[in-house]
Design brief:
This protein is α+β, with helices and mostly antiparallel strands and about 200 residues long. It has a single domain, classed as 3-Layer(aba) Sandwich (Aminopeptidase). It is globular. The protein starts with 8 loop residues before the first strand and ends with a helix. The protein has an 8-stranded mixed sheet, with helices on both faces. It has helices spanning about 25-30, 35, 45-55, 115-130, 145-150, 185-195, 195-200; strands spanning about 10, 15-20, 70-75, 80-90, 95-105, 135-140, 155-165, 170-180.
Length: about 200
């Protein structure tokens, strides 16, 4: 079992592809922002950290074993600008479980890019990789990310109240999920709505 996408992975407006050293400045523009990092599991990054990530975990271009993560840059087809990145984690070979995450430069928010990119990752996970279940775990204060999960058709399954110490304070978590058999209906309904063109984040 492995996932080796053909790059770039294209949607209506976006091109998803491996990150490169040419993306350092674009990544720094939002991954160094404390507000962007406030409710996600990483601290504001400097140039050195980004360089190290590019040479390390972000260099992965295929999923070949559980415990791995595939991080892809989200590029606008029209302009070639990097507007964010998305990730697909492979948590369990036995249970065919995965997880998605997404982050978008605030300068490009409000256009539905996170939803469109995350939907592409769901498609990779379910249709090309054969996962059974994909989850998204979101800090309850991160309402924009929760709206993306709901827009994708993911079901909220849990609200874990003050369940972990996160960046120096107790935080609560919203857990969303989708099963492989639920995916086709949401994929098809999104196409019918034309989400790739009209969705707003």
């Amino acid at each position: 079992m492995e996932l080796r996408p053909v790059y770039p992975v294209r949607t209506g407006r976006l091109s998803l592809r491996p990150l490169t050293a040419d993306d350092i400045d674009a990544l720094l523009a939002y991954r160094s922002d404390p507000e962007v990092c406030r409710y996600v599991p990483f601290e504001p990054m400097d140039r050195q950290v980004i360089v190290e990530r590019l040479a390390g975990q972000w260099a992965t271009t295929a999923l070949t074993d559980e415990g791995q993560a595939l991080t892809l840059g989200v590029e606008l087809i029209e302009t070639g600008e990097l507007v964010g990145d998305v990730v697909l984690f492979w948590h369990s070979r036995e249970h065919l479980g995965g997880e998605i995450g997404y982050v978008v430069n605030p300068a490009f928010s409000g256009h539905g890019y996170a939803t469109e990119a995350a939907q592409a990752m769901l498609r990779l996970g379910f249709e090309e990789f054969g996962l059974h279940r994909i989850v998204a775990r979101i800090d309850e204060r991160n309402e924009p990310s929760a709206r993306v999960a709901r827009r994708l058709g993911m079901r909220q399954e849990a609200h874990l109240v003050r369940n972990e110490m996160f960046k120096g304070e107790w935080s609560s978590e919203l857990d969303f999920a989708m099963l492989a058999e639920e995916w086709p209906a949401h994929r098809d309904s999104s196409r019918a709505r034309g989400d790739g063109q009209r969705t707003r984040r």
